[in-house]
Every structure is written in C-alpha cells, then in structure tokens.
Specification:
The protein is an alpha+beta fold and 527 residues long. Helix content is 35%, strand content 13%. The chain is built from 18 helices and 21 strands. A hairpin with a 4-residue loop joins strand 16 and strand 17.
Length: 527
C-alpha cells in the first residue's frame, strides 16, 4: 500500500469509518490540501464557535458533534486534527468575523461537495463529489438543541461551563443567557416567517439543496422583506472536478466567474454583509483570500477513477461498444467545444445549454431564478432581476475586498478566473461533461433517477419512488442502495404531468408537453 493510501486509511479509521480494507482515490491532492479544502474559513456563519463545541443534542447529554449524531444529517465526521484541532466535521470551519469581532463556525464548500461511499468493508472518500447532506434538517436540529439548552437548567449549566471556562461568574452567565435567548428568538422569528409564507413547501431530503432559492432569500430579504420566495426547487450537488473549466457554471448556466459564484455562495450561508449606504457598504466577513485559495485547490482536483480492486473490473469489450454508443447518442450535448481565446488568452469549455422545452425535465430551478424580481432597497437600483441584483452585489463586494487587499491587476485577474463577473438566468440547463459520472448518483440535475442503470433505461422502467440517505454503494447498478436509512429518511417521488414524468427523457418523440402541475403529496419530495 502506498504512503498516500496508508494515510487515507488512517484518516478514515480515525473519522469513524468501520473497515478492514480501504482505497485511496487518487485525485491529485495531498492530505494537507484535503484538510485545507475541508476547513479553510470562508466567512460563513452558523453558530458562535464556542457554542457549537459545547452544544448537546436536544434530547440527551451527548455532544451534538458526536460522529454518530452528525452522520444522521449526512455530515462526514473528521477526527483528523491537521488544520482542525477541535475535530470539526468535514465542511465546517472556524471563522473570525472582523465586522462583529466574533468567532463563529460556518460552512465551507466541502460540506456539500465531499462524498463518502461504503461498500462491504470499505470506506471510500471522494473529494469534490456530491454530499448526502440534509440541509433543511440540520439547522432545525440546531435550533431544537439551542432551545433545549435554554429550557433545561442542567443542560445550560454544562453549556455555560464549557463556553465560559475560567471566566464563568454570575455576570458572564447572565450575558450568555441573553445572547443565547436573542439567537434563539432570531431563529424562531425566521422560522415563523418561513411557515407563514410557506418558504419550504417540500422536504429537500438528503443530497439536494435549493441553493439559488435559499441563498437568494438569505441575501435578498436583507434588501427588502418582500423579496422572500419559496425555495421549492432543490437540485443535486454537482461535482467540482473540471467545473472550473466550464464557460458557465450552475445547473442553469447562470454564472461565469468563479469569484462571483463563490462570493454568492458565502453570503448565501449567512456571512455578515453591510448593505446600508455609507463608507462601510459592501463590507463583509467573507474571506476572499481563502475563496481564491480553495478555487486554486479545486483546479488541481482530478476526477476519481472507478476503483476496480473494490467494485470489480470493467468489461473492456463493453467499454468499446459503449464508447461508440456514447459518441452517437450523447457526445453532441455532453462533449463541449472550447471557446475562442478571450482577451487574457484563456479558453473554456462551452458547455451546451439545453432549453427546457427540449430537455423535458423539471423546469422549476431555472424558471424560479429567471422569473425572480428583486426590490433592491438600499442599493437604490429600483426593481431588478435576481441575476442583475446578485451580479451588482458580488461585483461590489469583490471590488471592495480587492481594494482593501491592494491586489495587483494580474492577481485580480487570476482570482477572477480570467473572466468577468456576469450573471444571467436562461430557461435551460447545462449538459455537463460526464467525467467520473459513476460517482454522481442520484442522477439528473434534480437527483430524480437513483442509479446509472435506470438513467439509461426506458423511462417507464425507472423507480417512481426511491429512498435517499444511504451511503452504501451499489456497483452493479451504479448508485446508492435505496433503503430506509436510520431514523430519518425521505422518499423521492417523480412529478407526473398526466402520464408523463418530469425527468430526462431519451425518447425525444415522447417529451412531456403543456403546463407544469407540481404536486407534493404527504410531504414527500417532488422532483
């Protein structure tokens, strides 16, 4: 076993994986690079840092951060202390908010873009792969745990001792009570607004997130409360490898510049942002230096190769047959041409945008962003499209941060990925290249097909209902085993329009037509 493989095996064992064998996915990263990706602070905020470490589960005295507990939300534990002395899970970082002068824990890219598979006795970590995060249940569990801490004197006593340490006295405890009460009241006020406006009419489930919807609400409602919209179009987490080579990113091809996209992501997960006019307008807790460093790391991330020693070898005769079929049936959409060199001499993959009426799949993610209009409030721009408003915000944040860091023109161009910060809202989805497609289940932009076998099968043979949440891999059908997972699970139900399914249809003469009628029966997830 190689030194890298031994290191990863030790890493997996320490992080709670149960295995007698393991495979190191050769993706071009060292362990130090991997840990930087997992825990570099990006300025996002979830909970005051000391609180997060001290928080107990709502119904018992066990740590909220226990490995067993965080796995229930699709979060990957990380006991590796390299760049992570407090053993935060993958995708969590300690961040200092310079504006508020406070230390928080917040998300990083890795929480949504790190995959972990289990097969027989093996644990397989794939960096940049879709996560199985349950992004709605986690914050609700945190709210319940904070509420239980306030309500239970014994819980609060343990919490206060852990948070305050040697500074604990009657005065500091009272201040802590006030701070926790204010934090909880804020969460409850947001929850009440969400319930009143039905912001989340469906459960997203594991491995899906309406990033444009929820992120937009997080940022745009700070401009004007009337900007709140239902976040009812969850999509799968796309793979990160090679994404930086695309001319346009996001499932709907909405963003071209990496820095603009990453700024939007960071402020969408509760980074501090000053919006009121004045000398501090567009000041933020977002750490653009770390965003640039993460983007540079991702450019070195290689797609994972099918681990034949674990899943079995691939029949090369079938590979040749499949290559011919792929060239005939798929390449015209999924193998992009290169753009002509831009003013910086850079070329990118011109990923194909497939119009909604042609692709015949769930249009909601694209139509929501296309139709969304924004009251810009303190920005003084009147009513703008969501794309225009977000482009304005991210451009001004970028400009302020670059100026404060005194970046050279070349450094700015490099951090920008040698392209402008442009946002748009096409009624289409990109046809992503299929590198390492085996690691991307469930399939399609909205995760509505459970495995690769069903994706390539006739539509009527696909499961109408399947379960997500299991990380047990099925190499025969290439996807995850569909089963009820632990206590929490969500079923995915395909959305029907008459007799047609709103999922990708390879029989082009039988596409769904007519207006979309979305139903979400019994709280299940519509796709």
């Amino acid at each position: 076993m190689s030194v890298q493989a031994q290191a990863l095996c030790l890493f997996i064992i320490l992080s709670g994986g149960v295995l007698t064998g393991c495979v190191a996915m050769q993706q071009g990263w060292t362990e130090e690079m991997r840990q930087t990706y997992y825990h570099a602070p990006q300025g996002a905020k979830l909970l005051p840092y000391a609180w997060f470490l001290a928080l107990e589960q709502a119904t018992n005295a066990q740590a909220f951060l226990s490995d067993e507990h965080v796995r229930k939300f699709g979060i990957i534990p990380d006991q590796n202390m390299l760049k992570n002395p407090d053993r935060l899970p993958v995708g969590f970082a300690k961040t200092f908010d310079q504006i508020l002068q406070e230390t928080w824990v917040g998300f990083t890219c890795a929480v949504c873009h790190t995959g972990e598979f289990f097969y027989q006795d093996h644990t397989i970590r794939i960096d940049g792969a879709p996560a199985m995060l349950d992004a709605l249940t986690l914050p609700r569990a945190i709210e319940q745990a904070v509420g239980a801490t306030l309500a239970n004197p014994e819980k609060f006593d343990r919490f206060a001792k852990a948070v305050l340490g040697g500074d604990e006295n009657a005065t500091t405890r009272q201040r802590l009570v006030q701070s926790v009460t204010a934090y909880l009241q804020n969460l409850q006020a947001i929850k009440q607004i969400d319930e009143q406006h039905k912001t989340y009419p469906i459960q997203w489930g594991f491995g899906r997130l309406d990033a444009l919807g929820r992120g937009g609400n997080s940022v745009l409602t700070k401009l004007d409360p009337r900007n709140l919209r239902p976040a009812d179009a969850p999509v799968s987490f796309p793979a990160l490898w090679n994404a930086w080579t695309f001319e346009w990113m996001q499932w709907n091809g909405a963003i071209t510049q990496p820095m603009g996209r990453n700024l939007g992501q960071a402020i969408g997960v509760n980074a501090t942002l000053v919006l009121e006019p004045g000398e501090n307008q567009f000041a933020t807790s977002v750490n653009v230096k770390e965003l640039a460093a993460i983007e540079e790391l991702i450019q070195q991330l290689e797609p994972p190769v099918w681990p034949s020693e674990i899943f079995g070898t691939i029949d090369q005769k079938k590979v040749k047959r499949g290559a011919k079929l792929y060239e005939e049936q798929c390449a015209h959409c999924h193998v992009p041409e290169m753009t002509t060199p831009n003013q910086h001499g850079r070329q990118f993959k011109r990923v194909n945008l497939i119009p909604l009426e042609e692709i015949g799949t769930d249009p909601l993610s694209a139509t929501n962003f296309h139709d969304r209009m924004v009251e810009t409030g303190p920005l003084g721009l009147g009513v703008k499209t969501a794309a225009e408003a977000t482009q304005h915000l991210t451009s001004n944040i970028r400009n302020r941060q670059y100026h404060e860091l005194k970046l050279s023109k070349e450094q700015q161009r490099s951090w920008d990925g040698y392209r402008p910060n442009l946002w748009r809202a096409p009624l289409a989805y990109i046809a992503r290249p299929h590198s390492a497609v085996w690691a991307l289940a469930p399939y399609l932009h909205n995760g509505s097909v459970p495995n690769l076998y069903q994706l390539l099968s006739p539509r009527e043979e696909r499961d109408a209902v399947f379960y997500v949440g299991s990380a047990k891999f099925d190499p025969k059908y290439v996807g995850f085993v569909s089963r009820k997972w632990l206590i929490a699970y969500f079923s995915l139900i395909h959305v029907f329009q008459g007799t047609q399914m709103w999922v990708m249809n390879f029989e082009m003469d039988r596409r769904p037509t007519g207006p979309l009628d979305l139903l979400y029966p019994n709280g299940n997830v519509g796709t």
